[in-house]
Design goal:
The protein is α/β, with parallel strands linked by helices and about 400 residues long. It has two domains: about 120 residues, Aspartate Aminotransferase, domain 1 (Alpha-Beta Complex); about 240 residues, 3-Layer(aba) Sandwich (Aspartate Aminotransferase, domain 2). About 40% of the residues lie in helices and about 15% in strands. The protein has 15 helices and 13 strands. The strands form three sheets. Strands 2-8-7-6-5-3-4 form a seven-stranded mixed β-sheet, sandwiched between helices. A four-stranded antiparallel β-sheet has the order 9-10-13-12. Strands 1-11 form a two-stranded parallel sheet. Helix 4 crosses helix 10. It is globular.
Length: about 400
């Protein structure tokens, strides 16, 4: 007789820390795209390879014996290279010993920053639509989410941000270039933000993972570039986005020493440290190949322009795309259905997967008709997607 399967005794289910959270829309749409044989322009990752020189640097680091734990804050050579890069780009010199930490991706940096500074009862302002990790991270930190809507054109509403600031505001998350909209903050926006925050103790969490993807001659205006903002900011960056290695999950955060001390208290018990050979490889590559991040705007603008030119022949209305590798489109002239319904139809019937803008909000605008597409793809992939979208 075969043994009976083990049935554990019934226990009460533990209360959820994130009761409103289910499977992310990115997982759902990617699975639907796979089932339907659709081209996946939903999830934001490249379908092309990184520079072979970077991959060779990883192999070299492993063979050179860099396979054990690195320092908790990151390999010193990488932190030093980052300090030089930030100083070169934004004129702010962070101390590599006390003010820069290498993280297990930008999302870990974001959560760790919130856990470091937010206490129960504190409010955190998030500008919506927003990257979907922000709200759960605030909730896990015990904070209260204070949502401030972007303008109808999906730019920052500085008046609304000013109105939301209050005695309970502990932190403000700003994302520029912005996912999902592709908009960027101007120099004037950043200057006004600095003046607005100056009389407060609000911590700024600056999500700048798309810092090197800004187009048409515009510049990325980092929080690190304004001393008033840099003095209160965690500035978060991503090697994965910059070097087309999103699966490596390596990012960084720069902050004044007092903020970084609190950050590292959490970081050491969160992930402790980050993949050693990849840190050594990134340090060597950043030193040897600074042109890689300098050339990134032109690299992605060529893809953006190719994609926009193809979409211009459809009934989709192109929204502004000043940065990132995302293009938002208004589809109301194609189908008058809600955003999730449109993206599901587009995936099943047209063969191209997209993400509904409402997935980036807790209370989606039921009247809006906008979807997000990713153009971080090979030219052949984009051309194939455009041939399918040409029927719209």
């Amino acid at each position: 007789m075969p043994p009976r399967p083990f049935t554990p005794p019934q226990r009460p289910a533990p209360p959820s820390r994130l009761p409103a959270v289910g499977t992310t829309i990115f997982t759902v749409m990617s699975a639907l795209a796979q089932r339907c044989g659709a081209i996946n322009l939903g999830q934001g990752f490249p379908d092309f390879d990184p520079d072979p020189a970077l991959l060779d640097a990883v192999t070299r680091a492993m063979r050179d014996g860099h396979n054990q734990y690195p320092p908790m804050a990151g390999v010193p050579a990488l932190r030093e290279a980052l300090s030089d890069k930030i100083a070169d780009l934004y004129g702010c010199r962070y101390d590599p010993g006390d003010e820069i930490t290498v993280t297990a991706g930008a999302t870990q940096a974001l959560l760790t920053a919130l856990l470091a500074v937010v206490r129960p009862g504190d409010e955190v302002i998030v500008l919506t639509p927003a990257y979907d990790a922000y709200a759960p991270a605030v909730e896990l930190a015990g904070g209260t989410l204070r949502e401030v809507a972007l303008t109808p054109e999906l730019g920052p509403d500085l008046d609304a941000i000013a109105a939301a600031l209050g005695p309970r505001t502990r932190a403000l998350i700003v994302n520029t270039p912005h996912n999902p909209s592709g908009r960027i903050w101007s120099a004037a926006d950043m200057q006004r933000l600095a003046a607005m925050l100056e009389p407060t103790d609000v911590v700024l969490i600056a999500d700048e993972v798309y810092e090197h993807m800004v187009y048409d001659g515009r510049r990325h205006h980092s929080a690190a570039a304004d001393p008033r903002l840099a003095a209160r900011a965690f500035v978060i960056s991503s090697f994965g986005k910059t070097y087309h290695v999103t699966g490596w999950k390596v990012g960084s955060v720069a902050a004044p020493a007092a903020l970084m001390r609190e950050f590292r208290k959490v970081h050491q018990f969160n992930v402790f440290t980050v993949n050693t050979p990849m840190q050594w490889a990134l340090a060597a590559y950043l030193r040897a190949t600074p042109q890689a991040h300098r050339d990134l705007p032109a690299f992605y603008q060529a893809r953006r322009d190719r994609f926009r030119a193809g979409l211009a022949g459809t009934r989709l209305r192109l929204l502004a795309c000043e940065g990132t590798y995302f293009q938002c489109v208004d589809y109301r002239d194609v189908r008058d259905v809600d955003e999730t319904g449109f993206c599901e139809w587009l995936t099943r019937d047209i063969g191209v997967a997209a993400i509904p803008l409402g997935a980036f909000e807790s209370r989606p605008d039921g009247q809006r008709r906008v979807a997000r597409l990713c153009f971080a793809k090979r030219e052949a992939t984009l051309d194939d997607a455009l041939r399918r979208l040409a029927v719209l």
